[in-house]
Design goal:
The chain has 237 residues and is mainly alpha-helical. The chain folds into two domains: 152 residues, no CATH class; 60 residues. The protein has ten helices and four strands. The longest helix has 23 residues.
Amino acid sequence: NIDQTGIGVTELQFYTRYLRPFYGSQLSPLYFLAFLLAISVLGYQLFTRPSLREALGRASAHAWVLGLWLAVPFVVFTLSLTMNSRFDLALLPAAALITARGILSLPTRALRSGVVTVLVICGLVQFFALSYDELDWLREEATIDLPGVGKVNLLGEGMYIEFPRSGVTDPRYFVPPRVLEQVSTDMKLEGRESVQLGNVVNRTYSNNAIFNYLMYNAYPGIELREFARGGWEDPPV
């Protein structure tokens, strides 16, 4: 809930809080640039009319549907008291279709083919760079420092972009199976039918949800007591 962040409705960040994950992780800055290019092309074609009324009247029903598909969810989530980047997923299909329509509206076939080729190559590079730990040098090379903005990773980064086997996804951090197996062994050795396990860790790699999932079928005699109340990236309370 946004109340927990201290961001008020009078602050600019309240109205732009969904833009950062939209361009930073959901699309990535490279594809967000293509999205802006598409909007510019479509806007230029639409508004090169003598009057605004004629320009709006020239827009097709498909254009209105795409525009509202993108704008309405963004406005609804922005004016709500939520703050979860996953809500941006509702915008992605519309953004993809708008980008495709803008590219198809470019004046020459050579230009359209060139833009599509660049986007496909960038997409493949981004896929492999974010899927294999051995290619971490690509992520480092794609990070630039922009004046007034700071460090920007052109390949995208965010809470829901995690690498397979490094950082917080290092397999050595995934201790719940070993903990449950040890507790189960001790419970059997002591002849007890049930025990309570207190969890004080709340991280992406070890949290109450993971323990409950593992305990559901394999460890029926273990009851989880949840003591961790902090956020995933905050120290447990």
